[in-house]
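User: I've been trying to design a sequence by hand for this structure and keep getting stuck. Would you show me what you'd pick, starting by listing the structure so we're on the same page?

Assistant: Good idea, let's start from the same input. This is the structure you sent:
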């Protein structure tokens, strides 16, 4: 009997670490988890759509993403931060949230029902783009950015959604409402329900874009309507949470009186070492994952052949990320509550290091054509290990990286959190991807007949430097973040 009681106590103890939310806290925990669920549901769909449109189009490819991020994504991101900082002084947080969501919804509707059906009139013809690429070979990956301009705009706006809704607006709301002392318990627990959005979003992508489907336009309209429906529920849950905060916690959502410009926001960032190191975490994650992911997507295009197939394969990978994230949410709870912040913070860069260099090892084998000698398909193997990198690093980001990053903000005052977070999570995030794109774009222009695959030796050297900086930033944040209990 004593042994049974001991085992029961141990099981209960483990469960409390794996899921440390108390019964009375569910009225706050469930709405936040559902809000994350819906945001990630839409994010998963939009990430698949934006890549599918640009990469699989004739005369385009994964290489185009490098230039797209430099010339379109970053300028739009900086314009957003400028507008956001200005709007913060005029509007309260709730109105700002509704406005941003409405603008996104309006654009997605216009793209699906007006822009895409008329793409042949709005874009340069494939023949004209092909001729321009022949005349200007060094600009062959820049020309599609402008020739397929509606895809470029959709890619940029969808990319912005992924940063703004989760990284900025969702986590900003949680930092306002969730008490600091409860942050470790709540933040990692959100994944247990919230990240089912990844699974459902991926399932919807695979269901709508059936393997081998040839009616992409009709499928696109269906999936955009699904996104807009999810947005309605996002508004309802957000309203419920903000009403709870004003009534139960006396939190006031009002315009911020301090009107910092974008330059002043970055000055604030540079004045506080903790914000600089958090910026390095975000920079290194985005740079390292982006530089590997573009190479993998270049391989996947050759394997998938059509838009629907590419979307289907991407949906499968995202589904795997979702399943692993649910399991990882329980593990993260145990690690964050049982061990120091540093243990959880190190998991993402360690996985990124191992999987990145394993992927590039198979690219190397593909380039020296050793597969023909040994009798295996190196293209297929590189796609598989690229998918493994994608799954493990994205899972680690959602389960460990996001939570540890948000915890690192908690020792800062509200002013530094709000302004520094906007600069880091939106502009800084886009800037890191842009710089990754700039480096690869420069190599594609400078090296004769270069493709994303032939750049791998240079990418490996750059990657080693970026990963080293990432470990350094974690070391510097270790003391202040470990103090949060």
């Amino acid at each position: 009997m004593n042994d049974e009681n001991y085992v029961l106590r141990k099981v209960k103890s483990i469960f409390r670490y794996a899921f440390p939310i108390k019964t009375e806290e569910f009225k706050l925990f469930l709405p936040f988890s559902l809000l994350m669920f819906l945001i990630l549901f839409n994010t998963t769909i939009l990430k698949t759509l934006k890549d599918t449109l640009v990469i699989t189009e004739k005369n385009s490819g994964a290489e185009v993403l490098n230039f797209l991020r430099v010339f379109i994504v970053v300028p739009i991101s900086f314009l957003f931060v400028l507008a956001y900082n200005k709007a913060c002084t005029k509007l309260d947080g709730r109105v700002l949230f509704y406005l941003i969501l409405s603008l996104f919804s309006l654009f997605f509707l216009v793209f699906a029902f007006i822009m895409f059906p008329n793409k042949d009139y709005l874009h340069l013809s494939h023949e004209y783009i092909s001729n321009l690429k022949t005349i200007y070979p060094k600009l062959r990956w820049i020309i599609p950015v402008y020739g397929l301009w509606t895809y470029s705009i959709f890619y940029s706006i969808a990319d912005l959604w992924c940063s703004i809704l989760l990284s900025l607006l969702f986590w900003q709301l949680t930092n306002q409402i969730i008490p600091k002392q409860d942050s470790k318990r709540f933040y990692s627990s959100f994944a247990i329900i919230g990240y089912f959005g990844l699974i459902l979003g991926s399932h919807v992508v695979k269901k709508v874009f059936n393997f081998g489907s040839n009616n992409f336009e009709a499928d696109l309209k269906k999936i955009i309507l699904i996104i807009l429906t999810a947005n309605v529920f996002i508004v309802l849950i957000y309203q419920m949470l903000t009403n709870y905060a004003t009534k139960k916690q006396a939190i006031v959502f009002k315009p911020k009186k301090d009107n910092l410009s974008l330059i002043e926001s970055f000055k604030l960032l540079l004045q506080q070492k903790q914000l600089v190191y958090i910026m390095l975490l975000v920079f290194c994650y985005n740079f390292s994952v982006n530089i590997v992911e573009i190479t993998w997507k270049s391989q996947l295009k050759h394997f998938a052949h059509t838009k629907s197939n590419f979307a289907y394969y991407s949906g499968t990978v995202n589904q795997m990320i979702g399943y692993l994230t649910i399991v990882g949410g329980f593990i993260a709870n145990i690690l964050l509550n049982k061990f120091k912040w540093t243990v959880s913070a190190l998991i993402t860069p360690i996985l990124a290091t191992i999987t990145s260099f394993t992927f590039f090892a198979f690219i190397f084998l593909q380039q020296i054509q050793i597969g023909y000698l040994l009798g295996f398909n190196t293209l297929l193997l590189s796609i598989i290990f690229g998918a493994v990198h994608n799954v493990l690093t994205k899972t680690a980001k959602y389960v460990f990286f996001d939570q540890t990053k948000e915890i690192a903000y908690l020792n800062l005052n509200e002013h530094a959190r709000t302004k520094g977070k906007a600069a880091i999570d939106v502009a800084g995030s886009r800037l890191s991807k842009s710089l990754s794109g700039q480096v690869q774009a420069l190599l594609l222009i400078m090296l004769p007949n270069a493709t994303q695959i032939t750049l791998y030796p240079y990418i490996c050297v750059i990657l080693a430097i970026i990963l080293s900086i990432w470990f350094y930033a974690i070391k510097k944040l270790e003391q202040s973040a470990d103090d949060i209990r």
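That's my pick for every position. To get oriented when you compare it with your attempt: The radius of gyration is 23 Å. The chain has one domain: 22-482.
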